[in-house]
Amino acid sequence: MADDLIARYLRPGTLQLGAVPPLSLYIHLPWCLRKCPYCDFNSHEQAPRLPVVATPQGGSTRTGKPGSGSARALDPELESRYLDALRADLEASLPLVWGRNVQTIFIGGGTPSLFSPEAITRLLDDVRARLPLLPGAEVTLEANPGTFERERFRAFRAAGVNRLSIGVQSFDDAALAALGRVHDRAQAIAAAEEAREAFDTFNLDLMYALPGQDLAKAAEDLRTALALQPTHLSVYHLTIEPNTRFANAPPAGLPDDDLSAEMLDQITALTGEAGLQRYEVSAFAQPGHRCRHNLNYWQFGDYLGIGAGAHSKLSFPHRVVRQVRWREPTAYMEKALGGQAVSNDEEVARKTLPFEFMLNALRLKEGFDLSLFPERTGLPMSAVRSTLDEAQQRGLITQTGPQVVPTARGFDFLSDLQALFLPAKPRS
Length: 428
Description:
- This protein is α/β, with parallel strands linked by helices.
- The protein is built from 16 helices and 17 strands.
- It is globular.
C-alpha cells in the first residue's frame, strides 16, 4: 500500500514545490475521563483503573471521585495495544517521510496524561528508533489536572517530554462545574505548581466568555493563571460547536459579543503587563517560549499525524496531501495493526491552497514573509497578489517590503480577512 501511495503522491502535477517544509509529528491519544460538553475533538470516555498507589495533592479535601486526588490510568492491556497500533501506523508511514528530520512532537488528545509515564517512555522510544529527531526537538504532552499526582509530571519529563500543556480552562469552581471538568481550582493550582518545578517550558490553557462570567471574574481567572508563572498561555473564547452537548443544550448566561471583546482586550493588557507577548490569535508567551509545534502549523509546515482520527498534511514535489486516520479507537487499532490506518486521503486542490495557507499564516501577529507562500504552496505569487492588495485597501493588512502583517482591524476581523482568500464560487 505504501508503494502505491508513494507512486500516486510523486506523479507529475501542476504545483512546483522547490523543497519540502519542516516536519512535525502529532500523536493522538483519544481517551479522557469525561467528555466535556463543549468538546468537538475526537475524544472518548474510558473507564480508568485506579493506580496501585494514590498520592494526595494540592491541599484540598479528596473524595475518591475522578480527578479528586487519585491519578487515573488506562487499563494496561488497552494501553499496550494502542501503543502497538501507533508503532504499526508510524512504520507504515515511514516511506512518506524518508530522509526528513522531525522538528517537534505533540502528544494530544483526549487526555494523554491518562497514559502512564512508562507508556510515554515506550512511545517516544518507538519514535526515536524510527524517525530522526533534531537535537533539542520540542516534545509536548497535554495533561489535565484531573489526572495529576505528585511526581507524575517529573516522570513524563524523564520519559523525554520537555514541554507540558495543562488544560486548566478556569480556576473558578462554578465555571469548572459548568464546563463539565473533572478537576477543581485547588487541583489546577497544584498541577501548575508541579509543572513549573518539573519543566522549563509549560503552557496553561484558559477559556473566557464562560457561562455567568463578567469582566471581574475573567480578570481573576487570568491573574490566578499569571501568578503561577507559565511561560506560555493559550486563551480561547468558549464557542458552541456543532455536535456537542452544548450545541443541543446551550448553557445560560453566556457573555454577549461586546462583553467578550472587552474580556479579550483585558486579557491582552494583563498578559502584556506580565511579560507575555501575544504572537498568535490565542497564544501568549515569554520570550523564547513560543510553541514551535504550533508555529509550524501556522507557517503551513508539514505534519504527520498518527493515532485515532489524526490528520496529516504532507508535501511532495507536485502536490500537498491530507490524510485522516480511522476515528473510532477500536477500529483504528484493528486497521493500524493490519497496515491500514489511513481511512482517507486527498490532494489539496490547487484553488483552495491560497485559503488554506492564509487560514494559518494570518493568525500570526507578526504575519509572514511573502516568500513563504510559493515555498509552501508551490503556487506563484500571482495567485494571491490581487487579494492581498484588496485586503490592504480595506485596512486589514499592511505590506512592508516582503512582510505581510495583519493590522489591528485585521486581527479583530480575522475571519473576514481569511475569507477573502476563499476560492471564487462558480457562476450558475
